[in-house]
């Protein structure tokens, strides 16, 4: 199947573009360190970074701001962006469906349910993350099973089943909130589900980074075999791929990455749907290149949006709201441009 | 012309007669709607921000008139200390299932007090005597209490509260003296878990207590949410949090260690009486005095605040509090 018409990007050209986007990400990370509500000049940022402060009190605050506030938040945003985008691309490949994404498959809602249940039972942080993973896995499994029971070739079937699962898990989240102690647990669950990077610290960055880096590495190592899945099960098997095992590994990795982002940032939509499409449009289909590009563009997108969210005004705008406001119309534009025959 | 005059006279006489017979009367609520109420209001339902509305009734010593209980998520200890019977009353609303309108009708209230328009419309449509109390601007509380005084036939008590409100603020103003803008400490009232300044009224009581609220930007929205970095950039000299749990979170947060209020131990928990003092509550004059005592401790002593509290709850709620209870109110909500 074809996702988008791949541009005839010559190898050299693609590599050049990749270098440009990697440099852009590096530049944005540096610029983000200088952005924020606490007034710090670029010079002060650089001095703090290379550890040449004058030991004054304002210097100590600058260190706190750079190393404990901005850096963890930037790292978390990068991990959330890269994680959701790679996961989205992986789901799209493994289900051979351009509309698959963590939100549309119900993974985000499933992870949200798992985590709220763990919070309801007062389980420790690590268990909350594990529960998010199991919930996400249950949602994607149920969506896929339901879709395969519907004897239809339409790409919409999986998306519809995913939306059904998403609705089901949202309802289960409401149920958890309903039985939660209103004075104690309910508030915790509600704030947590709203999701925000406003308080992201080193622990959040690590929580997001471990599954995203590990899952990303596994997917990258398997990139050629995974790309065979896009040809269809028979063709992939004929070319020597263990289709079932491969599919399970991809789903496990993508779901772990999604669950990790849900744990630190709540349910952030549209990134996993939008970014893989843009990456394919710009970088073609070569698996390794498009995967690196997906991660880079995802990180650029979420980091850029979060920069606006945290520094545009006193008011902190929720991340999920901003990605939806930008992502939804942009995705519609892509769909219209891509012409409908590719979406049968 | 004269026939018209005669008709008006007739109507007026008829109205007077009905009032005299103890049947009913019509009042105009703070949203401009006319509501017909029985002459004697004995059974009152409070809908929406129940603790806030109950507080108004406590100030008339009318705890016994409230026929509904407290929704679990709004229940606070001191509501039950001021009105012990509340624990036995039916709960008519919850955040998940909304209003139990059938139960409200079943209670046959003489008066339903609300603070929002949609609930008032809904209850009025069912023929319930719903009265909307509006508290947008800080001093609306005076008009609110005057209206409630007229409704409950407690005009004197209402006048007493309004007088107290003005006098208490004037006393604080006098003690405070003129404070230079530059000598006013930067104050932040925050719900730390949400990183939100939740109520616009704090932009009123902080300057009245001689502080400078860092979130004061003339906004019309109730709340403002910001980032941790913004909090550090404001570098408040006095930090007021919503409950004791939040004070612990602030103390344990390494990123806040350079914030002036944290360094100098000026992180305070907002007291919780009939309602959270930092939000809209009948206890607002006490809020200002308490805030003044933490912002300018050199001018306002703790004993001054405690005796004022004791006098306030005695005079308006008709409840005398022990020293332990006063300390407990000042210690704030235990948190979540």
Main attributes of the structure:
heterodimer, A: 344 residues, 14 helices, disordered N terminus, B: 336 residues, alpha/beta, Rossmann fold, 2 domains, 4-stranded parallel beta sheet, 3-stranded parallel beta sheet, 13 strands
Let me know the CATH homologous superfamily of chain A: ABC transporter involved in vitamin B12 uptake, BtuC
Main sheet record of chain A: none
Name of the CATH superfamily of the largest domain in chain B: Nitrogenase molybdenum iron protein domain
Which pair has the most extensive contact? A-B, 29 and 25 residues
The tally of domains of chain A stands at: 1
Instruction: Based on the coordinates given, report the CATH architecture of the largest domain in chain B.
Output: 3-Layer(aba) Sandwich
Text of the CATH class of the largest domain in chain B: Alpha Beta
The biggest beta sheet of chain B reads: 4 strands, parallel
Please state the structural category of chain A. mainly alpha
Percent strand of chain B: 5-15%
Q: Low-confidence runs of chain B (pLDDT<50, min 5 residues)?
A: 13-21
